[in-house]
Each structure stands twice: as structure tokens, then as C-alpha cells.
Amino acid sequence: MSGPAGVGKGTLVSRVRAARPELGLTVSATTRDPRPGEVDGVSYHFMTEDEFQSHVDAGDFLEWAQVHDHRYGTLRSEVDRCLDAGRSVALEIDVQGGANVKRLYPDVVRIFILPPSWEVLESRLRGRGTESEDSLRLRLADARKELELAPTYDVRITNDDLDAAARELAETIESHEIQGGTTTHVHH
């Protein structure tokens, strides 16, 4: 699942996992500093640049990318932990990472979460109050580029009503599981 910062990816996945706790969720690695309330190993695996690079060099990442001023990645061990337990996995990753995962696993369903409008997205990002104006401008510029890639995704969900978007996300996951890993019959 991809979408611009502030679109509500984490909130949607939390809603779906509340109804389906068996849904696997990986903890991403990042080189950015924790925000207030974030816990290492739960919110993210927080790493220094050197630690992150050593994992890159060892081939430990399923995907990783430079996003904004920091690096983010999905450790293969996180995905394997879920798959080995027979669980579907929800990955919240940027568009670069989504393309990498699709190359490695052609049968994945890539879901793009869209904001109701550009104005709503900008308002949500500003409302967080967690970033400087320069950082905010960078995120908004990246969001425009990411939104241009939405049509390349298998499924697009607009997060204009949280309950409806969470239902649509859950239905997409269930449809994928029933179809045995193909995207042919997933409702768009």
C-alpha cells in the first residue's frame, strides 16, 4: 500500500487490523529520528545511516528507498516472519518500494490510497505540526509526484470517509486472498 504522506495509510491499516488481527504487518526500518510517542521496534526500527547501510550491503532488505531526507526499508526477515506463519502481509511503503516489491512478487496487489483532494492532503500535513516549512514543502512536492503514479496501481482507494475506505481496503485484501494471489478479479 502506497500513498502520499498524510493520506491516512497507517490509520486505515490500524482499522483493518482491528477487525483482522491475523493480518501481518511489518515494522519498517528508517534513518529518521523518532517522532513523539514512536517506539523503536514497534513504530519503526530506527537506525543510524551506518546501520542501515550495513543491512543494505548484506541484502537484508526486501525493498528500501530514499524518501525525503531519510531512508526507509522493509527487512526481508519481517516479511518472512509473517509469511512463515501463513499470514497475508500489509506493507505500507512508498511508490519506489512498491515497484520493487511488484518486481519480486508479481502477484502482489498494489493499493494506492488517495486523498479526497489536494487541499485536504495539505491541510492534514500542516495539521500534524511535526515538520518545518521546508520539510513540508518537500513532502508536498513528493506527494505530487506520487499521485501521478496512482494509475499504475492495481487498486485505488480514496480516503474521504475513514470507515468506507477501511471497508474497501478489507474487501480488497479478502478478495485477493480468495483469488489465491491473482489480481485479475480484484474489484477496482
Question: Would you mind describing this structure in some detail?
Answer:
- The protein has 188 residues and is an alpha/beta fold.
- It has a single domain, classed as P-loop containing nucleotide triphosphate hydrolases (Rossmann fold).
- It has seven helices and eight strands; from the N terminus they run H-E-E-E-H-E-E-H-E-H-E-H-H-E-H.
- The strands form three sheets. It has a four-stranded mixed sheet with strand order 3-2-5-4. A two-stranded parallel sheet has the order 1-6. A two-stranded parallel ribbon has the order 7-8.
- Strand 4 and strand 5 form a beta hairpin.
- Helix 1 packs across helix 7.
- The chain is globular, with a radius of gyration of 16 Å.
- The C terminus is likely disordered.
In short:
By secondary structure, the protein is an alpha/beta fold. It has seven helices and eight strands, in the order αβββαββαβαβααβα.
Number of strands: 8
Query: What structural class do the secondary elements suggest?
Result: alpha/beta
Global outline: globular
Please tell me the CATH architecture by its name.
Answer: 3-Layer(aba) Sandwich
Indicate the mean pLDDT.
Answer: 88
The profile of the biggest β sheet is: 4 strands, mixed
Report low-confidence residues grouped into runs of 5 or more.
182-188
CATH class: Alpha Beta
Layout of helices and strands:
Layout: H1 9-19, E1 24-25, E2 29-30, E3 45-46, H2 49-57, E4 61-67, E5 70-75, H3 76-84, E6 89-90, H4 95-104, E7 111-114, H5 118-128, H6 133-148, E8 155-158, H7 162-178
Parallel strand pairs: 1-6, 2-3, 7-8
Antiparallel strand pairs: 2-5, 4-5
Helix pairs in contact: 1-7
